[in-house]
Design a protein that fits this description.
single chain; alpha/beta; 8-stranded mixed sheet; 12 strands; globular; disordered C terminus
């Protein structure tokens, strides 16, 4: 009981100095580079940034689902309720994955197995973590489908993924992810390729489930509107690093990093009439072209200074808890000897 109270006072998840590397043509490249953050209990943390910024790789690192032989956690710690997940074997991780930490993947059509029924795939989750009869697993599966808003669950449980719409498949994925009432849910672009109405329904469903089960959620998305609606805190990632971390209100009303400011500037506004939306010039550098030193956003930044190419900015916190990695801010200037 004492141990449980100690855990309750700590963050649910704490990632420290995470580095995830991939082997490409015999060379090693970091897709996630020295990333640290915390996920408090019963909070929703948004992770935003362009494609190729390392958001999904970071989530797969936490789940230990990196492609074998190519990707690996090179350095860092991933603490979940007193356990460093980075040190666990596959067998030990299988006891946590799906039960205490679950993930909703980006593409429900490719994530669901096309040759098995919805019921079979849901029942597998229960069989993996509980001693349960097939009849009880089927009843629980039907109940889950009903809970995520699928009508006629008694029929749907015997159908195949291709027989369902995109929105229904996504609801099935959510049902599978929450089957064991996990403490942490990682949702990687949960509304991709869904129409606006279905997106709103899925997000509302996630919020209801989070509040009902006292879950924490890491929500990975490109959509800043989703962040505004769902999240308590936000991590802004660029080229494998966190460049800004703050609460959701500060992100929208007082973004500090030039990259975040440009992301905000690209959002259409109802109260302004413009001929063209602003865009961010250039592209995210590939793993092979990642700068060794300096700010990785420097060649796209409208405020770039000569030192930005030579000094790597550190993620530093101001008095309000707003963290930013940019040399424009005095507090972010690394001390001498720390410009690695």
């Amino acid at each position: 009981m004492e141990k449980k109270r100690v855990y309750e006072q700590q963050p649910l998840l704490e990632v420290k100095n995470l580095e995830t590397a991939f082997d490409i043509d015999g060379e090693e490249y970091n897709a996630v580079d020295n990333v640290s953050f915390k996920v408090e209990r019963r909070k929703i943390i948004g992770v935003v940034g362009e494609s190729g910024c390392g958001k999904s790789v970071m989530s797969l690192s936490i789940m230990k689902l990196l492609p074998k032989g190519i990707g690996r956690v090179k350095n860092g710690e991933i603490w979940f309720e007193g356990t460093n997940l980075a040190n666990l074997s596959d067998r030990e991780m299988n006891k946590i994955r799906g039960k205490d930490i679950s993930m909703i993947f980006q593409e429900p059509m490719t994530s669901l197995n096309p040759v098995f029924t919805i019921g079979f795939q849901l029942e597998e989750v229960f069989f993996n973590h509980f001693k349960i009869s097939k009849k009880e697993a089927r009843m629980k599966s039907i109940s889950l489908l009903k809970n995520v808003g699928i009508s006629r669950p008694e029929k749907i449980v015997d159908e195949y993924p291709h027989q369902l719409s995109g929105g229904m498949r996504q609801r099935v994925m959510i049902a599978m992810a929450i089957a064991c009432q996990p403490k942490l849910l990682i949702a990687d672009e949960p509304t991709t390729a869904l129409d606006v109405t279905v997106q709103a329904q899925i997000l509302e469903l996630l919020k209801e489930i989070q509040q009902m089960n006292n879950m924490s959620i890491i929500l990975i998305t490109h959509d800043l509107g989703v962040v505004a609606e769902m999240c308590d805190e936000v991590l802004v990632m660029y080229a494998g690093k966190i460049v800004e971390r703050t609460d959701v209100d500060s992100l929208f009303y007082n973004p500090k990093h030039p990259y975040t400011q440009l992301l905000m500037g690209a959002i259409p506004r109802m109260d302004e009439e413009v001929d063209r939306l602003s865009s961010i010039k250039g592209i995210v550098p590939s793993l092979k072209n990642m700068p060794k030193v300096g700010c990785r956003f420097a060649n796209r930044c409208p405020h770039a200074m000569p030192e930005c190419a030579a000094v790597t900015p550190l993620l530093n916190e101001n008095e309000t808890g707003h963290e930013v990695a940019c040399l424009l801010y005095e507090t972010s200037k690394p001390k001498e000897g720390m410009n690695a």
